């Protein structure tokens, strides 16, 4: 499997807070990579550096490189909007727009210039099918998305992200606000999606990392402590701190 | 157990409270009834739909109704884009929070200045310096400045209630800043803009001092274009003129009753609008 993203000596500051320290990592294509670590260790921050969502916070300063397909995404020649189209994001709290289900899914394609009704209909249906929610919503596409349950909203957000045909899907604790049934549906969905997409998922739930991910990265206080195949990291961690964390001795 | 003294104190305070509530309510009711009683008998079809005729001495307030309408329209058309634009800039673009704070403070202060001062400045600046003469347009411009802070502040407040997660969602899909604002942020602040407009309309209806200086007090019947270019009295100014200069108290009270009804309607619509949007938010 080839690598799709690489971070080299990545450092990030929120003003004076050094939130990421010399992170080096390579993420393989069409796999699921999980980020674990105690809360506040920089998982979300690192995830957001991968599609430049940190640009929206004025106090952030970044050094080092993040390469996507060999190109440093922090290069001034990079079109951030196009980058975020290719590297989509699903947030911790489901955040559908206060519009109809259809308009939520069509938002991305419309943003990128698709106007034809036929084409949009097609994309909306396909994205909802891919996110395994089509059967539940096909009869109420014109209804407001805020009327759906939390689990449905999150799958809608996944469908919305898929609608712009991304290569990578970044998910920041996508199931932390959901009940166990919705959680397992999203886990199944992630496993299904990795056939066509690269998935990077932040999770505070170690069982979840074990269940779905191929590789796992363990963060602590802004440092990447250990990174490797999930099975190996959880069965024979090489770093004492990883072992302490996965055996529940802290965090 | 409460002591006797304490009990007496509480009873006294309660009585005082009921008396003041009762007095306030009685005052409002008295005022409204008084105006309606004095004004409504003078409201006639002729009064509402004709212009004053100096040959027959008949009085009609149609020109004043129209002038009010023209001034409200012209002011809103100018003040909405300015106020909403300023609010968007301040909440979505401006980086320097200190300057934003200062502008917000200035806006608050501006809305507390007595309106006659706006009138004086408007007269010097719009009527004389910019050469608009005494006209409804000069009046509208003055009202634009008076109402700009209101529209700006209400829009700003409702922009702040649009959840950051909507913006993140849109940016995450590759939308540019302006698209995010146009499609996700602005629809969320429609209620603020509407509230601001309702407040402004109320203020425009009630304004007299600023307009006496800038828009004058003519009662000519005009179309909107001519109307804006010429001097004219709004209902409130007309009320002043009829009562003070011509001693026509019947007409003045008729106008007062009409203004009162309009004000009630405006307040009612403000309540309805905010209820409507509160319901939508909860969904
Ligand atoms: N917008 C922000 N401004 C300032 N500091 C922040 C911001 N977001 C996160 N941080 C800080 O960066 C560190 C890492 O946070 P985060 O990436 O959210 O951790 P995690 O997702 O692992 O819980 C924390 O110390 C947090 O306080
Ligand atoms: Mg986090």
Provide the fold topology.
The complex is a heterodimer of chains A (251) and B (283).
Chain A (H helix, E strand, L loop, with lengths): L2 E12 L2 E12 L3 E5 L6 H7 L10 E9 L2 E2 L7 H7 E4 L10 H11 L5 H14 L3 H4 L12 H13 L5 E5 L7 H14 L4 E5 L3 H7 L2 E6 L2 E7 H6 L4 H7 L5
Parallel strand pairs in A: 3-8, 3-9, 6-7, 7-8
Antiparallel strand pairs in A: 1-2, 1-4, 4-5, 9-10
Chain B lengths: L3 H36 L5 H5 L12 H32 L3 H14 L4 H15 L6 H25 L3 H9 L4 H9 L4 H17 L2 H6 L9 H6 L5 H11 L3 H34 L1
Helix pairs in contact in B: 1-13, 3-6, 3-9, 4-6, 5-6, 6-9, 7-8, 9-13, 12-13
The complex binds adenosine-5'-diphosphate (ADP) and magnesium ion (MG).
The site of magnesium ion has 3 residues of chain A, from helix 1.
Explain what you see.
- The complex is a heterodimer of chains A (251) and B (283).
- Chain A is an alpha/beta fold and 251 residues long.
- Helix content of chain A is 36%, strand content 27%.
- A 6-stranded mixed beta sheet of chain A has the order 6-7-8-3-9-10, sandwiched between helices. In chain A, strands 2-1-4-5 form a 4-stranded antiparallel beta sheet, with helices on one face.
- In chain A, strand 4 and strand 5 form a beta hairpin.
- In chain A, helix 3 crosses helix 4.
- Chain A is globular and about 55 Å long.
- The model of chain A has no long low-confidence stretch (mean pLDDT 94).
- With 283 residues, chain B is mostly helical.
- Chain B has 2 domains: 39 residues; 238 residues, MetI-like fold, CATH 1.10.3720.
- Chain B contains 13 helices and no strands.
- The longest helix of chain B has 36 residues.
- The model of chain B has no long low-confidence stretch (mean pLDDT 89).
- The chains are: A alpha/beta (251), B mainly alpha (283).
- The complex binds adenosine-5'-diphosphate and magnesium ion.
- The site of adenosine-5'-diphosphate has 12 residues of chain A, from strand 2 and helix 1.
């Amino acid at each position: 499997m080839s690598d799709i993203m690489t971070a080299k000596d990545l450092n990030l500051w929120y003003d004076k807070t050094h939130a990421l320290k010399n992170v080096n990592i390579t993420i393989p294509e069409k796999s699921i990579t999980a980020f674990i670590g105690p809360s506040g260790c920089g998982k979300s921050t690192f995830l957001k550096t991968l599609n430049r969502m940190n640009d929206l916070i004025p106090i952030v300063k970044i050094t080092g490189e993040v390469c996507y397909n060999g190109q440093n995404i922090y290069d001034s020649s990079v079109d951030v909007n196009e980058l975020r189209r290719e590297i989509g994001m699903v947030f911790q709290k489901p955040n559908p727009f206060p519009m109809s289900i259809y308009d939520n899914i069509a938002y991305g394609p419309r943003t990128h210039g698709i106007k034809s009704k036929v084409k949009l209909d097609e994309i909306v249906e396909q994205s909802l099918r891919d996110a395994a929610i089509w059967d539940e919503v096909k009869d109420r596409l014109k209804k407001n998305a805020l009327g759906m349950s939390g689990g449905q909203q999150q799958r809608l957000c996944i469908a919305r992200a898929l609608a712009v045909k991304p290569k990578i899907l970044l998910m920041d604790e996508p199931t932390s606000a959901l009940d166990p049934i919705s959680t397992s549906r999203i886990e199944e969905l992630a496993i299904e999606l990795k056939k066509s997409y690269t998935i990077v998922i932040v999770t505070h739930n170690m069982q979840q990392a074990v269940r779905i991910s191929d590789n796992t990265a363990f963060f602590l206080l802004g440092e990447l402590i250990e990174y490797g195949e999930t099975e190996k990291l959880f069965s024979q961690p090489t770093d004492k701190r990883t072992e302490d964390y996965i055996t529940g001795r802290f965090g | 157990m409460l002591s006797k003294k304490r009990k007496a104190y509480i009873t006294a305070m309660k009585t005082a409270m009921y008396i003041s509530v009762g007095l306030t309510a009685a005052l409002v009711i008295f005022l409204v009834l008084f105006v309606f009683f004095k004004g409504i008998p003078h409201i006639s079809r002729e009064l509402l739909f004709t212009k004053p005729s100096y040959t027959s001495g008949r009085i009609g307030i149609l020109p004043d109704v129209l002038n009010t309408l023209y001034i409200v329209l012209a002011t809103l058309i100018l003040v909405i884009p300015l106020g909403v634009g300023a609010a968007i800039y301040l909440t979505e673009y401006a980086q320097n929070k200190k300057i934003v704070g200062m502008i917000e403070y200035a806006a608050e202060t501006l809305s507390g200045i007595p309106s006659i001062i706006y009138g004086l400045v408007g007269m010097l600046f719009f009527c004389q310096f910019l050469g608009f003469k005494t006209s409804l347009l000069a009046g509208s411009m003055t009202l634009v400045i008076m109402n700009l802070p209101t529209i700006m502040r209400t829009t700003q407040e409702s922009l702040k209630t649009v959840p950051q997660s909507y913006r993140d969602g849109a940016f995450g899909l590759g939308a540019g800043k302006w698209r995010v604002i146009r499609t996700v942020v602005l629809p969320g602040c429609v209620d603020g803009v509407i509230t601001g407009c309702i407040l402004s309309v109320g203020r425009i209806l009630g304004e007299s001092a600023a307009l006496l200086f800038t828009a004058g007090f003519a009662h000519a019947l005009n179309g909107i274009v001519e109307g804006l270019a010429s001097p004219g009295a709004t209902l409130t100014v007309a009320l002043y003129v009829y009562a003070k200069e011509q001693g026509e108290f019947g007409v003045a009270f008729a106008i007062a009753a009409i203004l009162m009804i309009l004000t009630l309607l405006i307040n009612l619509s403000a309540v309805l609008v905010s209820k409507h949007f509160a319901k939508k938010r909860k969904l």
